[in-house]
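Pasting two entries for a bug report.
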Amino acid sequence: MSSCRDAQCAGSQWIGALIYVDDLWFCADSVEELNKMITVTQHRDEDHRTKINYGEGKSEIIVFNESSVIKSQRDHTPWIAKVRFPYPHDTVVREVDHFKYVGFTLDSKMEMNKHCNDIIKKIKISTGKVLKYEQIFKKQDKMYYRH
């Protein structure tokens, strides 16, 4: 899309986003660009009488594959939404190392360690439950299986 007339814009760049049900993802190359995207979306929502939930676990920032040098350079740069309603103020959006989206845990290093560990934990819990019930049925001298 070459024109910003029909889309929300941050400067001259069209805001590309991934939208799934009521979730919205932005992809930006800089702190400034993302802050502008958040603010433009905030203003659009205010104009349409809707509200972004900035509560913990609802609106969060994750930076993928960032080097430690770049992270230390921007360490104190906040992610900000410039809110106009009910009064003008800045809202800081939390940065996280990982978050869960549609059952999948994404992490900033894209290593999938947390996701894999969560799955392994669920498998161990489920296996323990199956083994417990297997022992109960064996003690009754019969094994019952349901299809």
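Entry 2 (this is the one that rendered wrong in the viewer):
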Amino acid sequence: MRPAVRILFPVLLPGLLGCVSTVVAATTNPIEALAADGRLLGTLTIIEQQSGFAGITGAIWSIDADGKYRAARFVNERIEPPYKQGQLAPEPLHALGKAMEVELSPLPARLGREAEINPRTIVIRFAQRTWTLALPPGRSIGEAWREYSRNENDPRYRFLRVVRVFLDGIGE
């Protein structure tokens, strides 16, 4: 080891390790989504919404811990009766819980930059936590999925993977 490195190494190493552990702690906040019996540990809600001349419109999907789900459209605070409801089978419910644990844990609360005009967002709420993905106005979940699924390390892909696993599970 060079003399300068030998002198600086003991001084710099603790600082470097501190920086690395801070980054790891800030980017890894694990969530538990599945109970031992295969149920979710809470209600999962996914909201797709866009602001426009009519206010805020969109769709809301909700799945209870036991797999009962509902899907409805909304305009502002008025939620229409569910257009779809049912019971998720144990296998898709387990796949959803696992996807949530793997994909959501490393994500920040906000992804993307919200548009100034007609912002479109997708929101995931689970276990008193919320994640939001901002999309360009008019971009559908399917279009975003096709764009972001090219890179599995993209945080937007990870976010949308949870949405896709849920929507595939209920046949949407």
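Dev reply: Rendering is fixed now. As a check, the viewer should reflect this: Residues 1-29 form one domain.
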